[in-house]
Predict the 3D structure of the following.
Amino acid sequence: MPVVSTDWRQQVAYQIYPRSFADSNGDGIGDLPGITAKLDYLEALGVGIVWLSPVYDSPNDDNGYDIRDYRRIMKEFGTMADFDQMLAGMKARGIRLMMDLVVNHTSDEHEWFKQARSSRDNPYHDFYIWQDPVEGREPTNWEAAFNGSAWTFNEATGEYYLHMFSKKQPDLNWENPKVRQEVYALMHFWLTKGVGGFRMDVINMISKPWQLDPTGQSLPRLPDAPVVQDGFLQPAFEMVTHGPRLMDFMHEMRREVLDHYDCITVGESPCATVEQAQAITDAETGALNMVFQFEHMDVDSQPGKGKWALKPLHLPDLKASLSHWQTALHGKGWNSLYWCNHDQPRAISRFGDDGVFRVRSGKMLATCLHMMQGTPFIYQGEELGMTNVKWHHIDAYQDIETRNMFHVAVTQKRQNPEQVMKAIHAKGRDNARTPMQWTGDAQAGFTTGQPWLAVNDNFAEVNAAQALSDEDSLFHYYRQLIALRKTWPVLIDGQFELLLPKHTTLFAYTRQMASVRLLVLCNFSSQFQGLPLKQLPDISKATPLIGNLPLEEWHLAPDTLAAWEARVYVLS
Ligand code: NOJ
């Protein structure tokens, strides 16, 4: 594992989605000078790492996750000088910058792809994944993440190219050593500039399951995916995650790049199992510091039907999933901890109560996650308690995934548009992408112009200015949680044990290191919750560490949790 200067495991990370963070020039789009102007805010929060979603030159088919030039800054976001200034500002505040590395695919407007698609004998042709038509059609039945086939026909060469996401995001061919060298070169470019790590976009998808003809007479092929009748499942995803050469590629990347810098890495890994995550994050034999796994993001969807097939949360499922990851990676790898990011709905609307208990349930969720083992990632606005939006018309939405899904569901599958909108309200990615709410002024202080995506209506009540001035706010609570991580080693190394696994509203667990033991109690409901004291460690002599209600209330009702209450005790 690369040598890292600080004990990064004590740090909390903060994700910035630059398009929606802060606009400095009134064009309605967040930018780098906007971020620089808010660094004091991040310093006040106490985060040690910033994960910055892509800021590279891009035609924005998928908001920057389609990169046209890895060494240029997107025009709307500013210049390389703006970037350098932002980076210097972060360094001055002891904040490590983690860039987004999107190298499973590029934009179709990247120079490599422009060359590659021009002819079969172009030197860049083999940078991407091509297959001849099979009986005049797509070579496999794979479906892309944003709907439709994962293959698009290219007239000039008479072949199909693979894209696991939109057709403007062709997948790179990692089997080609020249591709890997180009990726390593661009990583060196940013690391030499002084960035402190990478979040690697869908990195476990880079090795595809090629089937070789043992006689060597025909070209390698890709297999079909199992057929799924309905729903928005992406069966092809399971075909391409953790492929046969993934670990070879990761080890090579480690040798050629990561081992030479002080950097922290997190690999986004859809469909990852704990065993796969162990392999990737093992301190000796792995390659990355941690992965983003998705298991707990699936607990409120119908199994096998994809994210839009809604299902009410059954708390024991969430507990079982998180606790499995806690125990399986303990001492073997390292967890990332998150409730939300730019691809997920807002946590309070999803797992808490975005009505009267908005702040309290936000604090409960924060407590529940931050007391676990791993690196917590806060998504911009989470610390303010930002919530989902419910726009009535699909045209209000900008996200390619949401728009494509609506179109296919309503026009091809003839689903009821109102039902489809319900799913979008619950799960759509634009829930997370509405502009950051800085003040109660026009456009929430995000821009002086017209924002690229509408501001959430609740900005007058939910905004950073209000949160900073209220000492009981969610922001200040997050600040306390972040500080605790630096002073309580048990939060870093302590063993996790789930209590009451079947309880449908209480999430209870302990963390223990030597004689220090913490008890975490969280009420995931709007009802009072009597504590089953006989099944819990003795709290009669325990000391309160942190909670979301005043201490007097703990004493008044030692055996009851109020709605959405969270308490952490130090057991003696
Ligand atoms: C995962 C990213 O988080 C998401 O926003 C993006 O659409 C896909 N990867 C494709 O890059």
Q: What stands out?
A: The chain has a mean pLDDT of 96. The two ends are 37 Å apart (CA to CA). The chain has three domains: 8-106+177-210+235-482, 111-162, 493-570. The CA atoms of residues 506 and 523 lie 5 Å apart.
